Amino acid sequence: MTINFETLWASLLLYGLNAIYAGALLAVGLYLSGAADRIVTGALSHARSIDPLVSNFLASLARYAVLAVMGIAVLQLFGIQTASLVAVLGAASLAIGLALQGTLTNLAAGVMLLLFRPFKIGDTVEVGGKAGTVTSLSLFMTELKTSENVQILLPNGSVWGSAIINKSTYPGANASKVEVSFPIRAGAEAQNMGRDLVADLAQDARVQREPAPHAKVSKVVNLADAEGGVVELTIAATTEPGDADAVKAKLLEAINNYIAGRPAALPKAAI
């Protein structure tokens, strides 16, 4: 068997040059992919409506797209037919996409939520039949925390595909109403007690000024009481959701203290 060294040398030279070109292409590809990552990140960082998570996601897509193009170019340098490879990768991508259809749906919904921002971290929302405060929003999951300090994880697909009630969008929409009703003697006693309790609430910094705390006689309980009519007095105020329980406890304490000093204010059936 005769070895043609000239042909061997020419082949080695050709493949050697291709290897050098491939290495140069890979180096250029790595540089361009990093540049694409930085350019996309820098461009999106100036847009206030774009979440940093979306910026990182799109920058990564740009980076890997550049690397994929350079990888195909390197394969072509060595005479590898990339058409069949691309077809195989396309079929594999389709199979993977069908297998992960639900996950990809959540991913697409997460991108849409991050782009359009129907709510932000800290908002109180009702979505997908669940209610709570938004504590985290990722590409796949939305995390809520309920008033009982319970964590709720919702797939983004169910969040984007359902009605979203955001109670924090407009000023005052997230206020909680504190309301306490109890029976009391009709007449001056009810008026005096309502006035004193409202004045006490007005001094509490946690109680909102608009709408102001107020007292009202909501209904007549008993007109046949031997010592005069009995009505239901309602004391109401608005406050932040986190302060509602504390304000209500303070109001109940104030009512008990008032009644303790004026036991005649209550009808006998309620004592």
TrEMBL record:
SUPFAM superfamilies: Mechanosensitive channel protein MscS (YggB), transmembrane region (SSF82861), Sm-like ribonucleoproteins (SSF50182). Mechanosensitive channel that participates in the regulation of osmotic pressure changes within the cell, opening in response to stretch forces in the membrane lipid bilayer, without the need for other proteins. Contributes to normal resistance to hypoosmotic shock. Forms an ion channel of 1.0 nanosiemens conductance with a slight preference for anions. Homoheptamer. It is a multi-pass membrane protein. Gene3D superfamilies: 1.10.287.1260, 2.30.30.60. InterPro entries: LSM_dom_sf (IPR010920), MS_channel_1st (IPR049142), MscS_archaea/bacteria_type (IPR045275), MscS_beta-dom_sf (IPR023408), MscS_channel_2nd (IPR006685), MscS_channel_TM-2 (IPR011014). Belongs to the MscS (TC 1.A.23) family. Pfam families: MS_channel_1st, MS_channel_2nd. It is found in: Cell inner membrane; Cell membrane. This is Small-conductance mechanosensitive channel. Its main location: membrane. The lineage of its organism: Bacteria, Pseudomonadati, Pseudomonadota, Alphaproteobacteria, Hyphomicrobiales. The chain crosses the membrane at residues 12-32, 53-79, 85-116. Keywords: Cell inner membrane, Cell membrane, Ion channel, Ion transport, Membrane, Transmembrane, Transmembrane helix, Transport. Residues 61-101 form the Mechanosensitive ion channel transmembrane helices 2/3 domain. The keyword Transferase does not apply. Residues 103-168 form the Mechanosensitive ion channel MscS domain. It comes from the Bacteria.
